[in-house]
Amino acid sequence: MNTNPMDAVSGAEPTAAPTWRQETLTQRVTGFFLRDRRAMVGMILLVVMLFAAFVGPRLVPYEPDQPNVRNRFAAPSWSHWMGTDRSGRDLLSRVLAGASISFRVAIGAALLALLIGAPLGAVTSYIGGLVDDVTQRCMDAIIAFPARLLAIVLVVLMGPSVVSLWFAIAFSSIPRYARIIRGSVLDQKEREYVEAAHAIGEGRLAILFLYILPNVLPPLAVQVTLDFASAVTVEASLSFLGLGLVPPTISWGGLLNDAQQWLEEAPWLAIFPGAALALTVLSFVLIGDAIRDHLDPRTRRRGGMR
Question: Phi and psi (nearest 5°) for 136?
Answer without folding.
Answer: -65, -35
